[in-house]
Design brief:
The protein is an alpha+beta fold. The chain has 19 helices and 20 strands. Among the domains are: 2-40, no CATH class; 302-376, Orthogonal Bundle (Arc Repressor Mutant, subunit A); 388-524. The strands form 6 sheets. It has a 6-stranded mixed β-sheet. Strands 5, 6, 7 and 8 form a 4-stranded antiparallel β-sheet that branches.
């Protein structure tokens, strides 16, 4: 032992060994390699993942259905989406045309109707500028407003007597009736309002408009979805008026051969007016169908609601950043959530760091989420087929242009075709309503303007672009089929590709292979409603 100890000391003096402890030694070169590898692993553990890895993670987390790989189905799938998106304020049309069908391929409006009617989900509207987005909440959510149900004993405050109302406005009268007697049908609501309104008679239209003002302020809801689907009373009226302009022709077995007379024109105009009034009345009744209730703020404390909001964002996005808070419509953005995020970090519930490239230095995530992100950053199996997903550009799972920058357009993918001046304005991707983007393995490959008028490619790989065009067309066909026969008649023509006349670019063959018909001004998509 003495000889060995002397030899070790001599080697250490020569710098060939390093003492690690009383009886521990290591070769200097081996120790250097260990340190280098440990440092590399530590750096890898804190290195942010590329944006395309986060997009793959996000598509998986939000159960975006890939071609042939649906992950959610039926009413239970709709309930899971509502739970993940509790409180998200989106236009009703976007909910039913984009968000729910993208995650539940067999979605039908009756599924959402059933959840609402069963009392498992409630809806509330809000006002943002001139828009009125709709939010859905599981009824047991800490973020959900409370429906005032006098019949079930759930009261906001003790109902005042008719003569004790401080605010005699019709809005206050309608809310008082809902609080004191709700839930109520619209007919029962008008009767209750008429009793409180005194000698001044209130028409159904005036009561409906007062109810609408309460709905847009988030103070009333119903157990039906006719009102948000119609977009309110004005939208229902305009739709019905448009429908009433051209009533179907009456079938006469005997008709004059002498052409149209003044009498027949007058009868036709009168008949159109009658049909118009009937359609308007039907639309008015459909928008106000169901039982109406007043809404009161959630009974939870502001702290509990803030924690619930953070947990909801983490459930939806995995990572909370400044851009994600803004994209989710959080009032005040990340600064409003920062005290809760910091407290959760100090408690060990969250980690803070730079987990995703390009999304800012202040990022918060659960530790298991960080590990999942690392897994999605691993190189994809080259033998596996590419994962293509066609998404609305403004879908909550699509953060391109809202936290993740759009890539540069691959202009050379259009070949040598000259630029079309009229298409230069559209030669820039955006998150506008109706636009679509095809994502391949987390990276955007193709962007389409509303109604496919203009396409932009982010890759010059022709084989990849051909597959992306096929996925885009299949997605549009499926959307048109869901909307029915009227949507199938919509004119959808691709006119430009990368700012050039599409007929003179390689995209012409891809579109023709996808089933579009060549026209003098581009390629038209004909969709069957069956």
């Amino acid at each position: 032992m003495a000889l060995a100890a002397e030899s070790l000391e001599r080697l250490a003096a020569e710098g060939r060994l390093v003492r690690l402890g009383p009886d521990r030694w290591a070769d200097g070169a081996v120790l250097a390699r260990l340190r280098s590898r440990s440092l590399a692993r530590a750096r890898e553990a804190v290195r942010p993942v590329p944006a395309n890895a986060y997009v793959r993670f996000l598509l998986d987390r939000q159960a975006i259905a890939r071609a042939g790989e649906p992950t959610l189905a039926g009413i239970d799938g709709v309930a899971q989406v509502i739970a993940q998106f509790e409180g998200a304020a989106l236009p009703m049309e976007q909910w039913e045309r984009e968000v729910l069908p993208a995650r539940v391929p067999d979605y039908r409006p009756a599924m959402l109707d059933e959840l609402i009617a069963a009392g498992e989900v409630l809806w509330a509207a809000s006002t943002v500028g001139e828009a009125h987005p709709i939010s859905f909440f599981p009824t047991d959510s800490p973020l959900a407003p409370l429906p005032v149900d006098a019949q079930a004993g759930v009261a906001e405050v003790s109902a005042a007597e008719p003569g004790e109302l401080e605010d005699p406005s019709l809005d206050a009268i309608v809310r008082h009736v809902l609080v004191a007697q709700g839930p109520l049908t619209f007919r029962a609501l008008t009767d209750g309002a008429a009793q409180l309104a005194g000698p001044v008679a209130r028409t159904d239209r005036e009561v409906a408009e007062a109810l609408q003002r309460l709905v847009w302020k988030g103070e009333a809801t119903s157990d039906g979805l006719g009102f948000p689907r119609a977009g309110g009373l004005a939208a229902a009226a305009s739709a019905s008026a448009a429908g009433g302009q051209t009533p179907p022709p009456s079938r006469r077995r005997a008709s004059s051969r002498r052409g149209r007379s003044l009498h027949s024109e007058a009868r036709r105009a009168a008949r159109a007016a009658v049909v118009g009034r009937q359609v308007a009345s039907t639309a008015f009744d459909a928008a106000l169908a169901g039982r109406w209730s007043a809404l009161a703020p959630s009974g939870q404390s502001s702290t509990v609601q803030a924690v619930a909001l953070v947990e909801s964002l983490l459930d939806r996005y995995g990572v909370v950043t400044r851009d994600i808070a803004l994209a989710a419509g959080v009032p005040g953005g990340l600064s409003m959530l920062y005290p809760v995020l910091k407290a959760m970090e100090e408690a060990g519930d969250l980690a803070r760091g730079m987990f995703v490239e390009g999304m800012g230095p202040a990022q918060f995530a659960q530790r298991e989420t960080v590990e999942a992100l690392r897994a999605f950053s691993q190189p994809a199996d080259a033998s596996a087929p590419a994962s293509l997903v066609a998404l609305p550009a403004d879908d909550p799972a699509c953060l391109f242009g809202a936290g993740i920058p759009w890539p540069d357009v691959a202009w050379d993918a259009a070949g040598e075709a000259p630029a079309a001046d009229s298409a230069l304005v559209a030669a820039r991707p955006s998150r506008r309503e109706g636009a679509l983007v095809v994502v391949v393995d987390g990276a955007p490959v193709l962007w389409a303007a509303p109604r496919l008028k203009s396409l932009l490619a982010f890759s010059a790989d022709e084989k990849l672009l051909e597959a992306a065009v096929a996925a885009l067309v299949a997605s549009v066909r499926a959307a048109l089929k869901r909307e029915g026969a009227s949507a199938a008649r919509r004119k959808i023509v691709v006119e430009h590709f990368n700012g050039r006349d599409v007929l003179a670019t390689p995209a012409a063959s891809w579109l023709q292979s996808a089933g579009l018909v060549r026209l003098p001004d581009g390629f038209r998509l004909y969709a069957s409603p069956f």
